[in-house]
Amino acid sequence: MKSHPLFEKLRIFAPGPTPVPELVLSEMARSPLHHRTKEFVDVLTRVKSGLQYLFQTKQPSYVLSSSGTGAMETVIVNLFATGDEVIAIDGGKFGERWGKLATKFGLTVHTLKVEWGQAVSPDDIIKLLKAHPKTRGVLFQASETSTGVYHPVKEIADAIHKNSDALVIVDAITALGVVDLPMDKWGLDAVISGSQKALMLPPGLAFLALSQKAQEQRKRSNIPNFYFNLDAEDKAALGGETAWTPAVSLICGLDVVLTQLQKVGLEPVFKHHAKLAEATRRGVKGLGLELFAKTSPSDALTAVHVPKEIPEGKKIVSYLRDQFGVTIAGGQDQWKGKIFRIAHLGFYDELDMLTILAALENTLKALGGHIELGKGVAAASQYFLEGRNHGK
Ligand SMILES: *Cc1c(COP(=O)(O)O)cnc(C)c1O
User: Fold this and answer.
1) Whose CA is nearest to atom 3 of ligand 1?
2) Order of strands across the sheet with 339-343?
3) Hey, what CATH topology would domain 32-263 get?
């Protein structure tokens, strides 16, 4: 980067991994506890109840030492049997992953393709459920991180419940802790999250909660598994432990995050995310840019079309990194170089969003964008100001 190393400050605005608060970093810097001790059992017990709070469920929660995909795999190999039919909603990279995973383990996958940038229509799910009445699960993302779209979870769950017995399986890795997703109230059967997004931790942990109906369906499962075996986890949980050596330092960090989260309460956390997300959207629109999400933009991240004057969109990402030490995410697959994505889930505040908008304006202008400096920052700043005035 261009500034003197003495003044280098790395800033992450990619939708995972996200920044980690100092309170959490210092907790994780302590000597790791041994995982078969009362001390650690106390931490894990507190963490699991904190996760129940976060998932808004009375069902037990699982902590897995893996990235988020490990929890996706856990769901497939523990809840389904070879040949089972599932519907996978594929509106982006992560939806595609559901389909690939299920296919790999021998499930029959009916894919519901959704144009990138669009939210899935519950009516289309109903049609597919009617065409495949033996469907045992519908796999989807709450927030599709590759496109910045929020799929309407409640409407999807309602549509599934009214038309089938299929399990409602939600990858909520960039939604849990961002938007309200009451698992028990909405009848979600499997909800997944991971450490490195809204939960303000480094990568390495995945979380899962299952409804009673999902727990029942485990009995039918015949897919070979070992590391991601929920029977082994249940057995270990009787003694307050995990089956294998867990990522103890991350779990101690998670303890800090969940304790703070419970002090603050879910509602203010959702409001905070909604505010930063709206300010970011106003900021990029203020610059004359177009959001990638046609409807239902996610409050976790904002995906934006690269302006036409900049033919090589990838340069936006590299310029931000080289000049400012800022990491954002580009587009994936057919949208590589055509969109970019800015995160606002987890450990961010108002000034962070003004900072990234300032860096973005400057970058776009430097690369030949038809940009008026200050317009993005002004729109977002104005929104924050109005919010505070109304809050009084
Ligand atoms: C980050 C993410 C995942 C998990 O990816 P990992 O790299 O395995 O942690 C899954 N789904 C969504 C929607 C994500 O954003």
Assistant:
1) 68
2) 301-305, 339-343, 329-330
3) Aspartate Aminotransferase; domain 2 (3.40.640)
Contact status, residue 243 vs residue 229, Cβ threshold 8 Å: yes
Residues 143-178: pLDDT tens digits?
A: 999 999 999 999 999 999 999 999 999 999 999 999
Atom of ligand 1 lying closest to residue 72 CA: 10
Q: Which residue's alpha carbon is nearest to atom 15 within ligand 1?
A: 145
Question: Right CATH number for 11-18+266-389 from 3.30.70.670, 3.90.1150.10, 3.40.470.10, 3.90.110.10?
Answer: 3.90.1150.10
Instruction: Give residue ranges with CB within 6 A of ligand 1.
Output: 16, 67-69, 94, 141, 145, 171, 173-174, 194, 197
Output the CA–CA distances (angstroms, integers) from residue 248 to 34, 200, 232, 255, 389, in the order listed: 8, 16, 18, 10, 44
Threshold 0.85, pTM exceeds: yes
Q: Whose CA is nearest to atom 5 of ligand 1?
A: 68
Q: Using one digit for the tens of pLDDT, what is the confidence trace for 237-296?
A: 999 999 999 999 999 999 999 999 999 999 999 999 999 999 999 999 999 999 999 999
Q: What is the pLDDT of residues 46-80, one digit of tens each?
A: 999 999 999 999 999 999 999 999 999 999 999 99
The answer to whether residues 301 and 291 touch, using CB atoms and an 8 Å cutoff, is no
